[in-house]
Amino acid sequence: MAMTKVQIISNALALLGKAPINSLQNQSSLVTAGEQAFDFLLPVILGTGFWRFATKIVQLAQLVQTPPVTDWLYIYELPADFLKMVRQYPHNWAYEIYTEHQMYSNVQGPISIEYVFLPAIGQLPYYFNAYLVYRIAEYLALSNAQNVQFSTKLNSDMAMSMSQGLAADAQNRPQTPMISQPIISDRYVSSIING
């Protein structure tokens, strides 16, 4: 079941011992701080982690302009919802991303990228919402409770929630076995040669 922004903030406030809320309008300064924490933390968490549910692959549009420096030959426009690069197809590690939402490369298209984006709040999975609730509560804890032990306990619970969320999210991508295993396959070669 999808959660709303209000429900996520309300659950974070409940961890702080506050009453649940049904709206973000005309609320206390703590609720306003919770909304600001939500807006700030959501892209930070997604942009600094590796959550599979927030990744997608798209083909980039090559721009007609040329790069201002001779190190690069082509410019590609990044998607508007781009937060962080995961990988580029074809695999070419020579690229640079600039703040204008552009990627400079020496590969002439087509180029596709796998990247992290900011999904709609209703599309966030339950395991991520649980972690986000703890993260918002931890963010607000010191200013609300003025108690370091309370913040430490929330931080511990938040770490556990993050571990559980990442484990659940990892199920969205199966493990890829090693194709070449030279350490295993060549393990007995020296004993055979030396007889």
Blueprint of the fold:
Layout: H1 5-15, H2 29-48, E1 55-59, E2 61-62, E3 74-77, E4 82-89, E5 95-98, E6 102-105, E7 112-117, H3 126-145, H4 148-170, H5 182-185, H6 189-194
How would you describe this structure in keywords?
single chain; 195 residues; alpha+beta; 2 domains; four-stranded antiparallel β-sheet; three-stranded antiparallel β-sheet
Report a brief summary of the structure:
This protein is α+β, with helices and mostly antiparallel strands. The protein has helices at 5-15, 29-48, 126-145, 148-170, 182-185, 189-194; strands at 55-59, 61-62, 74-77, 82-89, 95-98, 102-105, 112-117.
Radius of gyration using CA atoms only: 23 Å
Q: How would a textbook summarize the main sheet?
A: 4 strands, antiparallel
Provide a count of the helices: 6
Q: Termini separation (Å)? A: 64 Å
- Give the DSSP E fraction (strand runs of 2 or more residues): 15-25%
**Count of DSSP strands:** 7
Low-confidence stretches: none
Outline type: globular
The sequence of SSEs as H and E is HHEEEEEEEHHHH
What is the oligomer described by this structure? Answer: single chain
Total domains: 2
Mean pLDDT: 81
Structural class, by secondary structure, is alpha+beta
What does this structure look like?
With 195 residues, this protein is an alpha+beta fold. It has 2 domains: 97 residues; 66 residues, no CATH class. The protein is built from 6 helices and 7 strands; from the N terminus they run ααβββββββαααα. The chain has a 4-stranded antiparallel β-sheet, with no helix packed on it. The protein has a 3-stranded antiparallel β-sheet with strand order 1-7-4, with helices on one face. α2 crosses α3 and α3 packs antiparallel against α4. The termini are far apart.
